[in-house]
Amino acid sequence: xxxxxxxxxxxxxxxxxxxxxxxxxxxxxxxxxxxxxxxxxxxxxxxxxxxxxxxxxxxxxxxxxxxxxxxxxxxxxxxxxxxxxxxxxxxxxxxxxxxxxxxxxxxxxxxxxxxxxxxxxxxxxxxxxxxxxxxxxxxxxxxxxxxxxxxxxxxxxxxxxxxxxxxxxxxxxxxxxxxxxxxxxxxxxxxxxxxxxxxxxxxxxxxxxxxxxxxxxxxxxxxxxxxxxxxxxxxxxxxxxxxxxxxxxxxxxxxxxxxxxxxxxxxxxxxxxxxxxxxxxxxxxxxxxxxxxxxxxxxxxxxxxxxxxxxxxxxxxxxxxxxxxxxxxxxxxxxxxxxxxxxxxxxxxxxxxxxxxxxxxxxxxxxxxxxxxxxxxxxxxxxxxxxxxxxxxxxxxxxxxxxxxx
Length: 406
Ligand SMILES: [Zn+2]
Description:
Elements: E1 4-9, E2 18-23, E3 26-31, E4 40-42, E5 47-50, E6 52-57, H1 75-86, H2 91-107, E7 110-118, H3 126-137, E8 143-149, H4 160-169, E9 174-177, H5 185-199, E10 203-207, H6 218-227, E11 234-238, H7 247-260, E12 262-266, H8 268-274, H9 290-294, E13 300-302, H10 319-329, H11 335-343, H12 347-352, E14 367-370, H13 375-381, E15 387-390, E16 393-397
Parallel strand pairs: 1-4, 6-7, 7-8, 8-9, 9-10, 10-11, 11-12, 12-13
Antiparallel strand pairs: 1-2, 2-3, 5-14, 14-15, 15-16
The structure holds zinc ion (ZN).
């Protein structure tokens, strides 16, 4: 049964405009001229794409600049500012700030998010419970995947593991880690793999978040991924150490990641803001070269990470802007390079979250229209989505600006 028509849409890489028929939340037909007595959105030749997918976003500590300042500008400064503010977090407060961020994300064309949620005896399950409510209340616009993790350490903070297990028993989708915060980093990595095995869930680590190439935890994660048979189920985020490796060492590291089936999430806004703070001039950018890893088949995503907090005092939840920031810092310009940046905020994170990557019959009618003719153009011009639908229902409109001539 036909419920809705999108007309004159430009599918990525296609020359002919198509109409897309939507019925019961799904795409039921894609053809050149469809008609029906149903509501219509005329895309007027603009690009249609599956929604953007955010693979790493902290909703629970977003929008707290009014109460938490990063006095040193460093990673440690951000961690202690948030840890102090966290004692004042309540479930309703986390819900309200998270809702504000999700609403921004929806209007920027994102319809699926993996959100990292802090669990420890201080905050208890307040953050987790707030995010579960957001997941239910915003399911009409955005799918939330909940990744619980010990931001303040596991072995050094007794009671954390029990709470993580309680969250996993009650709807958490996967487990995160933060070994650099632990008194026993490799012990944390092993324990998290054991827990992931117990619950049959994927893993997503904050890892190697500095520029010192003399040590790292990547090898320990790779070793356990192989030992546990968890290839293809492990992501590592930041890994700013990769940005300082000479080519031969980077190639060797890429081979290790590929063999262990480990993917990389780059968080350009945070990595640029926090790294290299000990440099007075010639500040290194600290952004891992994900585009070089994708050439070797490593799954790579670009994500927002933090919004308006001591880790990143900026944020609009725009993934086209974040991918543009990555392209700019990484000095990328060709059609193929920009297309790859688009893939890192769409195809790759979609696959990671088990979402479809292509507009096709029988898939969910969850897509956006962008004022561009190609995916590369979306990145070069930071195109903002003008309209979006999830499961057959229109979720936002943001018409292109109009000039008012004299
Ligand atoms: Zn993070």
